[in-house]
Amino acid sequence: xxxxxxxxxxxxxxxxxxxxxxxxxxxxxxxxxxxxxxxxxxxxxxxxxxxxxxxxxxxxxxxxxxxxxxxxxxxxxxxxxxxxxxxxxxxxxxxxxxxxxxxxxxxxxxxxxxxxxxxxxxxxxxxxxxxxxxxxxxxxxxxxxxxxxxxxxxxxxxxxxxxxxxxxxxxxxxxxxxxxxxxxxxxxxxxxxxxxxxxxxxxxxxxxxxxxxxxxxxxxxxxxxxxxxxxxxxxxxxxxxxxxxxxxxxxxxxxxxxxxxxxxxxxxxxxxxxxxxxxxxxxxxxxxxxxxxxxxxxxxxxxxxxxxxxxx
Length: 312
What we know:
Layout: E1 4-8, E2 11-18, E3 23-27, H1 39-45, E4 49-53, H2 71-84, E5 91-96, H3 98-109, E6 114-120, H4 135-140, H5 142-146, H6 152-155, H7 158-172, H8 181-190, H9 194-207, H10 219-223, E7 232-237, H11 245-254, E8 260-264
Helix pairs in contact: 2-3
């Protein structure tokens, strides 16, 4: 897909797109917008204009002059991109990792812009404190704490981003038939200068600062205090310990009418099925694949034959 550029919220964003129709904006996190390369053609077939921008600070998008990677500004970026791309009230917002946090906030802040919401692997913030004292949970999120350290700016980029390679394996596990080479190459290309590495780590430092993270003064919690009012589809991978079936039911219960949620086992090659997922040999790996996007979000209308290599 051709790399394009657009100005929104005072910054120039790189993006790729496919299809025509209502806008479907796909937001990435501390990974790569290339993760959407399997989903975009399916959205295009379903009649959407699928657009995957690169986050501020990540190449080739512009580095913000003030260095802000605050969630409030990421939310403003998403809503400004909606306008710059000519989105209407029928637009759909889809997010993963930091793009998921942004999706929760942008949909709640501007419900008139987004008709439907899809979030992958980032539950509403209130669910993150479940089992928060579990040592295994703390270890699983070790990068939250490591990235706070100034020396992380140098260490992360050493040996062709060996830490990123490790972090990817830490979150996805060892899956014999999944080759992460292409995804890792794309993720590293986003962080192609020391300044961009620094801004990537600033996502964690500015939004999860050691002094207030988890306290009543935590700004990010205030930004995400309101949930969307639109029908929302929440998807979660089985290898991510934050959400189990019981928690998923609680998440769906607090979402608006017409919402739904699914936990999916890591299926390396989800198969395109007219009546659901199951059986048969799978096609090429699809880190995030949503088969149909309709409202209301029910198992009969949304079939997330979903393979999630759970995110860093």
